[in-house]
Task: inverse folding
């Protein structure tokens, strides 16, 4: 028994402290679902306390998502694509649909579609978003869309990639789907 305890403690002694580990060699590029659910629940609680209405609450969630999106883009570019960023809209949307979604939510988004109304309208859909999986929205807030958080993430990745964008539609609860308008490249 004491040999086993010695072996397990010696294997942990070899690992450097978490702050001294290399970011480029992360064990996993995915975020824990329980950590994501806990943090999102706390963000939702904070937004509820600090907002005056549903639109204000969605704006706060979108702002939180924007911060997460910028940092996620930086981390993915640093780890997986050193020195390389896509400059074409469809490549960036595919990157969001697959890589960003898989990093944050553990799976790629269900669909990336081109809109029919406008030439520069795109929709990314997730039929079972992890963010809203554990959220029960009260009846008085039935118009609230927690998808605003994900819309903020997408907006940040597009902004960080040099595109001016405007997410416009968040379907509440079961399906996160929004439109992204490419308004042109930033100079």
Result:
């Amino acid at each position: 028994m004491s040999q086993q305890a010695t072996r397990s403690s010696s294997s942990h002694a070899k690992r450097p402290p978490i702050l001294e580990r290399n970011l480029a060699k992360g064990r996993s590029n995915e975020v824990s679902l329980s950590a994501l659910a806990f943090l999102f629940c706390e963000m939702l609680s904070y937004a509820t306390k600090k907002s005056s209405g549903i639109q204000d609450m969605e704006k706060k969630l979108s702002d939180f998502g924007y911060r997460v999106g910028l940092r996620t883009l930086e981390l993915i570019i640093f780890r997986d694509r050193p020195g390389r960023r896509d400059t074409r809209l469809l490549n960036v949307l595919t990157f969001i649909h697959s890589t960003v979604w898989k990093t944050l939510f553990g799976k790629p988004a269900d669909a990336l579609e081109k809109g029919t109304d406008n030439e520069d309208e795109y929709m990314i859909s997730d039929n079972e978003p992890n963010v809203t999986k554990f959220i029960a929205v009260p009846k008085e807030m039935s118009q609230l869309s927690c998808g605003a958080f994900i819309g903020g993430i997408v907006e940040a990745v597009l902004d960080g990639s040099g595109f001016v964008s405007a997410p416009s539609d968040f379907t509440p609860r079961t399906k996160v789907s929004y439109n992204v308008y490419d308004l042109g490249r930033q100079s």
User: Anything to note?
Assistant: The helical segments are 2-14, 33-50, 54-80, 89-105, 147-160.
